[in-house]
Amino acid sequence: MSEQAKIPRLPIPALKATVDRCLRSIEPLVRNNIDALAETSKKAMDFLKVANRLQHRLTVYEKTQPNSWLESWWLELAYLSWREGLCINSNYWIAFADDPNAYGTAKASDIPLLGSQEYLNGKSFESNEYGEFQIRRAVKFIQKTLDYKELINNGHIP
């Protein structure tokens, strides 16, 4: 944290550029439906009329924040108010490098796709049975956590 003051402030994105980028990103989804694209563009332009006031409020708010306009919202909404397990649902490796040997013989084809019915009804949610993949990931997570704790305890983290 000693270098925090040297990090440039997060800029507030230009509103018109953000809306234009949004419209470009949905264009491939509605390319065959000209009416849908026109209606979405109209709604985006209507939004800009209100959004300019909100953008001004954000600019005023940004000046009251010590580091970033996003920092307190991100901390509160992404980490503190979300009641699911952070390590599993947000970033299970946290700051650890991926270990290519972490999974041993578990094959990618053995791992259910996130959101699939197999995933939603997986053994880890319905019983106390866990597969090799889950066990290896948990062990590697604990190992890396203890490695990091050792670096802290030995004063090797600047």
From TrEMBL:
Domain of life: Eukaryota
InterPro entries linked to this entry: Carn_acyl_trans (IPR000542), CAT-like_dom_sf (IPR023213), Cho/carn_acyl_trans (IPR039551), Cho/carn_acyl_trans_2 (IPR042231)
Family listed: Belongs to the carnitine/choline acetyltransferase family.
Pfam families, per database record: Carn_acyltransf (PF00755)
PANTHER family the UniProt entry points to: CARNITINE O-ACYLTRANSFERASE (PTHR22589), CHOLINE_CARNITINE ACYLTRANSFERASE DOMAIN-CONTAINING PROTEIN (PTHR22589:SF107)
Protein name: Choline/carnitine acyltransferase domain-containing protein
Residues annotated as domain Choline/carnitine acyltransferase: 10-158
Keywords: Acyltransferase, Transferase
